[in-house]
Amino acid sequence: QSALTQPASVSGSPGQSITISCTGTSSDVGSYNLVSWYQQHPGKAPKLMIYEGSKRPSGVSNRFSASQSGNTASLTISGLQAEDEADYYCCSYAGYNTWMFGGGTKVTVL
Amino acid sequence: EVQLVESGGGLVQPGGSLRLSCAASGFTFSRYDMHWVRQGTGKNLEWVSAIGTTGDTFYPGSVKGRFTISRENAKNSLYLQMNSLRAEDTAMYYCVRAGTGHYDFDWWGQGTLVIVSA
């Protein structure tokens, strides 16, 4: 199984909105609405930002939203802030109690 | 507060073995599925293993037959026995708690580094 496909990098200016895509297959992303998204700052552990496709855990800013269409999931960060600069990873349940991560996207705030 | 503290990482030769441990606190450990997720030098995250509350275990093909996940609820501890280690197993290994929905990872430890090299 190959990793889910994410763009290597995405950038935006403060206040702008950016979208990160996560493309899988009909065996993972397309079969389940169970994509989660993680934010990772340098030297830190990943942090859950979105679960079950579009739900935000308590404490996560509503500037973070997510959606899915077919085999592609997307994470949108609105009102981009300097603190949003980090790596972002998608992850999908892939059936049979297995999980698949994306390759990660580096978000740069210009 | 939820805490997950990994230990047991280090330098090991190819073909060798290592046992990672994770001490959990701040939640009822026995009620949660638990996972190990690793991050290699290329920064890619890779799911490594899962164990359910009933002890069922699951692995991806890349580690199946070489890695064994286990848990000891009385000690609030999670383990990963890694055998026949290869250079490509070199990574930071994270102990991770499954979310209440079971399909996401809501708490991560700080990780323990495993280096497989001669």
Provide keyphrases for this structure.
heterodimer, A: 110 residues, mainly beta, 6-stranded mixed beta sheet, 3-stranded antiparallel beta sheet, 9 strands, 0% helix, B: 118 residues, 4-stranded antiparallel beta sheet, 51% strand
How would you characterize this protein structure?
The complex is a heterodimer of chains A (110) and B (118). Chain A is mainly beta and 110 residues long. Helices cover 0% and strands 44% of the residues of chain A. Chain A is built from no helices and 9 strands. Chain B has strands spanning 3-7, 10-12, 18-25, 34-39, 45-51, 57-58, 67-72, 77-82, 91-98, 105-108, 112-116. Classes of the chains: A mainly beta (110), B mainly beta (118).
Order of helices and strands of chain A: EEEEEEEEE
Major sheet size, sense and barrel closure of chain B? 7 strands, mixed
Write down the oligomeric state.
heterodimer
Determine Rg of chain A (CA atoms, Å). Answer: 13 Å
* Structure classification of chain B: mainly beta
Q: What class, by secondary structure content of chain A?
A: mainly beta
Strand content of chain A: 35-45%
Distance between the termini of chain A: 35 Å
Determine the N-to-C terminus distance of chain B. Answer: 40 Å
Largest sheet of chain A: 6 strands, mixed
Number of helices of chain B: 0
Categorize the overall geometry of chain A.
globular
Number of helices of chain A: 0
Total count of strands of chain A: 9
Overall average residue pLDDT of chain A: 95
Helical proportion of chain A, percent range: under 10%
Overall pLDDT of chain B, averaged?
A: 97
Task: Indicate the overall shape of chain B.
Answer: globular
Q: List segments of chain B where confidence is low: pLDDT < 50 over at least 5 consecutive residues.
A: none
Q: Spell the H/E element sequence of chain B.
A: EEEEEEEEEEE
> Largest interface: which pair?
A-B, 25 and 24 residues
